[in-house]
TrEMBL record:
Its EC number is 3.5.2.10. One of its GO terms (biological process) is riboflavin biosynthetic process. Pfam families: Creatininase. Its cofactor is Zn(2+). This is Creatinine amidohydrolase. It comes from the Bacteria. InterPro entries: Creatininase-like_sf (IPR024087), Creatininase/forma_Hydrolase (IPR003785).
Length: 233
């Protein structure tokens, strides 16, 4: 159940019998021809779809993350690492204070991964707390499904082009973009990154049939649900 569709009385009742919740992490950054909110849309939806049959609360996605390398693309927003670490820590503290003890973080943006140590430090400070960090799109079964469908897939390519992330009335390029040279990306500022990747797609087709996307999504939801409902001991 989404927190946005719940009231506090319902959450208080829920906490009498369960202490799990899900926190999606996203970002606001360029995704070529797709929405700037791709990472937030996908992390929240995969979390909500996975948690729905279990009745576990899903909080709204944190819409801003760590994306300094895209700051030459208008519309992108990046937080400082110290700011983001403090933000995630404060959210986890709030969960603990109100009774949650088992938290699954569903991360939708690779740039947010440096915050993982924050969850480890948080568990050290909070007796009985558990926190799992799940990069949903590159979890083993989900990524294997992506590679089986089309091994040329990356940021802002077809693998992020779902009906709920594409924008109405925009025509996608009908080509397979070659992979960018990732070694050249590592030592460039945001201006250099934009010069190298152009429209923002890192490599691959821009869109594949919805049947392919449904296949990826089904695996991703099941893989995420297994973490919510699995062994926490």
């Amino acid at each position: 159940m989404k927190i946005s569709e719940s009231n506090w009385f319902e959450i208080e009742d829920y906490l009498k019998s369960d202490d799990r919740c899900v926190l999606p992490l996203g970002s606001t950054e360029q995704h070529a021809w797709l929405s700037l909110s791709v990472d937030s849309i996908l992390s929240e939806k995969v979390a909500a779809d996975a948690a729905a049959p279990l009745g576990v609360p899903v909080f709204p996605a944190v819409a801003y993350g760590l994306t300094p390398y895209f700051m030459s693309f208008p519309g992108s927003v990046s937080l400082k690492l110290s700011t983001y670490a403090a933000l995630v820590s404060d959210i986890l503290d709030s969960f603990y204070a109100t009774g949650f003890r088992r938290i699954l973080i569903v991360n939708g943006h690779g740039g947010n991964t440096p915050v993982l140590p924050v969850t480890m430090e948080w568990m050290e400070r909070h007796e009985g707390a558990r926190c799992r960090f799940h990069d949903w799109w590159r979890a083993p079964k989900t990524m294997a499904t992506v590679r089986e469908i089309d091994p040329v897939a990356s940021h802002a390519s077809w693998m992020e082009n779902f009906p709920w992330t594409r924008l109405p009335g925009r025509t996608m390029p009908d080509v397979q973009k070659p992979y960018v040279d990732f070694d050249r990306l590592r030592d460039r500022n945001s201006k250099g990154v934009r010069e190298l990747i152009g429209d923002g797609n890192y490599g691959g087709l821009y869109q594949r049939p919805d049947e392919d996307m449904e296949r990826v999504w089904t695996v991703a939801v099941e893989e995420t649900r297994a973490l919510i409902d699995g062994e926490w001991a």
